[in-house]
Amino acid sequence: QVQLVESGGGSVQAGGSLRLTCVASRYTYTTWCMGWFRQAPGKEREGVAAIDSEGFTNYADFVKDRFTISKDNAKNILYLQMNSLNAEDTAMYYCAAYLALSCRTWGGSDFRYWGQGTQVTVSS
Q: Are β-strands 91-99 and 118-123 bridged in parallel, bridged antiparallel, or unpaired?
């Protein structure tokens, strides 16, 4: 069992930045696909970014060149650096993980473990 705890959300003005953090309860980062998802009120959950055990990354088109996913293996921490935020980025952001050597697929149904989420609110 893996527990994931997100933090770093908050309120920010459009154009601002936030860094989300996800701490895992046990060492996961060598054989896991880790990802960030988000869900806005009234909308479906969508994938934001994923990173595999080798450090290869995948991004949704709507966050390319604005968001960066990374991980610190020594500290068991997953990050999501979010820059140039806009009102459409307002959502609950979730950290997720599943056992795999790569993130060849990274749809929501692939991920077995989920955090409780951290709220991001961007005001225009």
A: antiparallel
- The first and second tokens of residue 88, run together, are 């459409």
Contact between 101 and 52 under an 8 Å Cβ cutoff? The reply is yes
Q: What is the pLDDT of residues 69-111, one digit of tens each?
A: 999 878 889 999 999 999 999 999 999 999 888 898 899 899 9
How do residues 19-61 score in pLDDT, each as one tens digit? 999 999 876 556 889 999 999 999 999 999 999 988 999 999 9
Which 3-state string (H, E, C) describes 49-116?
EEECCCCCEEECHHHCCCEEEEEEHHHCEEEEEECCCCHHHCEEEEEEEEECCCCCCCCHHHCCEECC
Q: Which of 19, 22, 11 is nearest to 51 (CA)?
A: 22
Q: What is the pLDDT, as a whole number, of residue 29? A: 56
> Side chain identity at 35, as an amino acid letter?
G
Sequence-separated (6 or more) residues with CB below 8 Å from residue 106: 33, 35, 47, 50, 58
